[in-house]
Amino acid sequence: MSLYAQIVVNGLMLGALYACIAVGFSLVWGVLNVINMLHGSFIVLGGYLAYFAWLHWQVSPFVMLLAVSVGLFLLGFLLQYGLVNRVVSQPVLTTLTLTFGLDMILYNLMNVWFDATPRRISLDLGRLDLNGVIVPNDRLLAMLLALAMTGVLYLVLRSSRIGRAIVAVRMDRDAATLMGIRVGRVYAITFGIGALMAGACGVLMSVVFPITTNITGLLLGKAFVICVIGGLGTVPGALVGGLALGLIESVAGNFLGAQSAILVGSLLMLVLLMTRPTGLIGKRGYQ
Amino acid sequence: MNANRFRFPARGAHLLFAGGVLLLAAMPFLADNYFVRLATFVCMYGALALSWNFIGGYAGYPSFSTAAFVGLGSYVGGLLQNAGVPMVLAWLGATVFVSLFAALLGGAILRMKGHYFAIGSITLVEVLRMVASLWVDVTGGGDGLNIRILDGGPDFAGRVFLYAMLAVMLCAWATTLAVERSRLGFGLRCISQNEEAADMVGIDTNRYKTAAYTLSAVYCGTVGAIYASWVSYIAPTDAFGILLTLKVPVMAMLGGLGTVYGPLVGATAFVLMEETIWARFLDYHQAILGVVIVLLIFFLPGGLLKIDYRRGLARIRSAAWARAGRATATEVR
Amino acid sequence: MTPKLIRTALLSALLMGATALAQAQSTIRIGAPLALTGGLADEGKKQQVAYDMWLKRVNAAGGINVGGTRRKVELITYDYQSDEKRAQQMAEKLITQDKVEFLTAPFGSGHTKVVAGVAERYGIPVMASAASSESVFDQGYKYLFGTLAPNGGLVDSMIRTFTAQMPTVKKIAILGREDVFPRSMAATMKAHAEKAGLKVVHNEYFPVGALDHSASLSRIKASGAEWIYITGYTKDLILVRKQMADLGTTAPIITMITGPAYREFIDALGPLANNVSSATWWHPSSQYKADDVFGSTKAFYDEFVAREKHDPDYVHASAAAALIALQKAIEKAGSTQGAKVRDALASLDAMTFYGPVKFGPNGMNAGRDLPIIQVQSGKVAVLYPQAVKQADLVAVR
Amino acid sequence: MGRLLEVQALDKHFGGLHATREVSFALEEGEIVGLIGPNGAGKTTLVNLITGVVRADGGSVVFRGRDVTAQRPWQAARSGLARTFQIVQPFPQMTVLENVCAGALFAGHAASLAQAERDAMDHLEFVGLAHEARRPATALTLPSRKRLELAKSLAMRPRLLLLDEVNAGLNTAEIDQALALMRAIAARGVTILLIEHLMKVVMSLSQRILVLHQGELIAQGEPQAVIRDARVVEAYLGSKFAARQAAHGVAATPAADTTTEVHR
User: Fold this and answer.
1) Ranges for the Leucine-binding protein domain (chain C) (predicted)?
2) Could you tell me which chain B residue has the CA closest to the CA of D135?
């Protein structure tokens, strides 16, 4: 019994992490219709910043959460404003290739600055033991953060001026332009938020997870799967998709073995793509 | 993707191409094996880029299945060879298998469009990779698959594989020409511009798209099989490399989408660029390549061939329409 | 435009080739395709450091003595980006363009195979410093030599020592990465453990690029294993250990191949690394007097620490040893001809700071007593061999 | 005169909206029939049903004796059913000629691309666009685009041509040219189903008129008779007006409002 409970808990904990990974990616995708190949590197960058701050100045990762968020928001904002915006309305392939190129640059720089040694902030926050079922605190924290980030984003998008602008642009770019919304700026801010979320997730991962430049591709891949399972470009979708994937991998991993688990995830994604491209929660947009 | 974005002054292009092919073929006599290998890579990527061009360029579907087909081809080819099938037959076998695979899959995967299709096609790579590493009894799993090394010394091997790849590239090129001038090519261009309208004028879009997807797989399979015999060792992560699947479309873009020579020019330029860059800058080659890609997006959106086009257009702007007309005529005939 | 591009590149490179040729007479040229970026970047950099240390020493001594004349050594390195296609391309470039007479293999069994495949065609000796899977050496390649001992060696002495010190241990759980080296380490352990009468209660492989192991670890926990044996790359092992702690999956013996052998494993895990045991091919505490450029293990160790500010691990040592073996073979053969040096390598029996180097018929360094280590209060302690033993096996609490 | 198209009890729902209710009618070879009705009456839906763009919930379409209810648009196009769109959609990056070519090649059964191009040229001549043949389709003016759309459909060698609002947005002079063109097309023996707001056009071309209102076929027959039909008048001008007319015994003669659109 407790094993099955454990499986579910594992799934949720992993799912929370996945949700963290995917939220920003999903947002950018939904609003800009851009597949941001930089996303994985953004996460790792956030992780590295947190790590080195902790290593050299013993800054707690939770303090860094703020600093990194601000830093990556700016980075994202500038990248979008200066570069991506210029081609944002062009075909998928163009934007994808551009971000791919940018990712090569960022990846290379990180490799030179930080080298690929896997690093982790060896803080251990302990775990809860609910009669036999173990809940690691840091993962729990990841879950809360994922929920918080999603919630905040959701509120921002619904209530704030910029939020409504973002939604408007997402719904109908031209109409939004006519309404006097500065689409370019909105895009930049959205991309910034996407990067911010990636960074925050990276900080969190640096406690849970060995950070190395080698995992950028992996993280990106997961983001793909999650977004598709949850529904492309919707913030709640990322959360649902993350949790769903986590559970699937945990259950499959338990009954079919670690290898099949990932295969099952990908297969499910393919099937969803073909049958239900709007994902598990087939809602377009945020309202 | 502008269908008649430009028509390369046909004869000139063919002559340049012929020259290029001759140079590649002569490589073993001009330079050492490193250049032979380089030439082989040019042919290999040329063939892959041309293949991708069918689905990505003509039909306008952003496919990232290349690595899936190449990987599949290399495993099928390798396994056949280990089963005692003669090398060349193994290559053909792999080609057939991969083509059928793509044809059967196409119907399903092409129901998606845009981003969805892009991801679907890239997931295919992942799935196959997982299968290859899971199916230990057949593929050897993560241990990889050993294929007997072709004896006869490096020069001989070098030539065999250069000419094999060159042959594949020529086939891909010939196929492209045929398609470019056929009903199929015309239909695919219609689809890439407006799928509904294409449907309305009587184009069986599903059949056409599946055809394009299959064409984009055929030579990938061959290349994969040849590659397997060449390296004599394949493993899941390398055979189904995500990098390859991203590189090839970039090459095609670099040259010019939906054109006969764009992919070839792009592949050649890309390979030479990589060679020169990594050799010069040990630490920063990747970043530099990244910068190059970014610059390309901004300054050569139409691909390298666009340059000639612009110049040509400027020179004979007056006769532009007439020329376009002749071009259309040549394309139709 | 296609031909034009090629032609220009052709000319420029032909020039490069020419200059290369000119130098080839005076110096001995060794080619090193390294993974400085991509998945294996970290390991690639380690090899680079060790090679460079050896190179400096050799050239300081005036070079390698080839039949009476000392010839300086030149090491040409390229980054192959952890990409198999590029690895073989580099190998060919090094052989044909830079006219190297010898090659070193990249990190890892898979890529070693690929490079060896190219070198074999040219009859260029390849020194592999980080490939230990028999599957690499059973290809019948005549020019491939590896300084690591077969995996079997690692496993056997470990089973013996542990079962001797903890006879109660009967059930072992094995979890390995689906990748050449880790896979064979896991497979070997399963085979040998069963032979030694241990009960394998869990045996599983996890895919390359797994981001989570909770499922497997929960099941291992339920399996009641007394010895948990994990193989993988450092980043996998860090994650696994962390998640074991998270999930309360533990056992008297936790072995991670080859985690504790790497400093970054201990750095990243802190207290969690304590009492994790492993086997490795080399450890600085096993001191050897050697007649090589370093003279002794201590000399190598001191120079390395002075240079890198941290302890060397087996990759560093093995990489340096590979070049030492090559040097000795060249001196022995009195020539730099591939075939001659190859034969010299095949019959080599040298004592290096890294330990004895004697290649078996398949080209692997003959198995010897490999160190078994355990992290004890943040430091690596050697449990075996007796000669250099520093501590007894401590159970994981 | 054989029966070309037979529509039986065609039914279509969009969620709550009942777009067409049990619509039944038939077209004879060589007829020109007008299909009118206020906005949202379901005219375009009907065309979409016939050409297979949307699937019918019920009923059947028989074209040239074959049941084509379930066929896909490309099959419809090849079987001789051509239609123009309210909003013209050419292949934007192709020349005018290539656009027409597409029609000739895939539905017009042209033997080769060369053949298709020759046919296309003829059709461009016919609609008077020959001089624009080499220009990009997007460079055309609205009237020219409508002509292109016509040429494209003609190139498909249609037996039945469904013209959906070909005249919307044209001025009087242009409409007169369009009228002449449609007559010429009819003269070629192509059956035409004409969807129109402009009574002038409908009245002067159609031999019969079908009136659709809220998805229902409320009247069909002789143009003059149909527009005097009380239900039609009511559908267009509302019940009060209809009642008043009935009282005064006057009929809404088509002459009263020629170029202006009746409804509104």
Assistant:
1) 27-378
2) B321
